[in-house]
Amino acid sequence: MKTITNKTRKPMKVRLPGGKTLFLGATRQASVRDDALEHPPVKKLIEAGDLEVFDASNPKASGGGGGGAVRGGGAAGQGGSRASIKTGDR
């Protein structure tokens, strides 16, 4: 496993093999498989300097991560659920 870091100040979508998408927040880290680094969209972001790659065995890079979420190739627009907030006079 390798750890990638978003070096930009904006969240980004990283296309992974198998039709998956990694949503990586600004300056956040996530672990990815080694073969994902050879995927052309990921390679392009690494070469552009938007992503930085670390070895997962590096103790500095393995601390927590956070900010990354992998979603399958499902329908768009089906985000997380929110609790309903009731307002007004009752």
Topology:
Elements: E1 2-6, E2 12-16, E3 20-24, E4 29-32, H1 40-48, E5 51-55, E6 68-71
Antiparallel strand pairs: 1-4, 1-5, 2-3, 3-6
Strand order of the largest sheet: 4-1-5
Q: What's the Cα radius of gyration?
A: 16 Å
Let me know the largest β-sheet. Answer: 3 strands, antiparallel
The residue fraction in helices comes out at 10-25%
**Proportion of beta-strand residues:** 25-35%
Distance between the termini: 54 Å
Number of DSSP strands?
Answer: 6
Could you say how many structural domains there are in total? Answer: 1
Written as H for each helix and E for each strand, in order along the chain, the element string is EEEEHEE
Describe this structure in words.
The chain has one domain (2-71). It contains one helix and six strands, in the order ββββαββ. Helices cover 10% and strands 31% of the residues. The longest helix is centred in the middle third of the chain and has 9 residues, at 40-48. It starts with a strand and ends in a 19-residue tail after the last strand.
Q: What's the short story on this structure?
A:
The chain is built from one helix and six strands. The protein is mainly β.
Any key phrases for this structure?
90 residues, mainly beta, 3-stranded antiparallel beta sheet, 6 strands, 31% strand
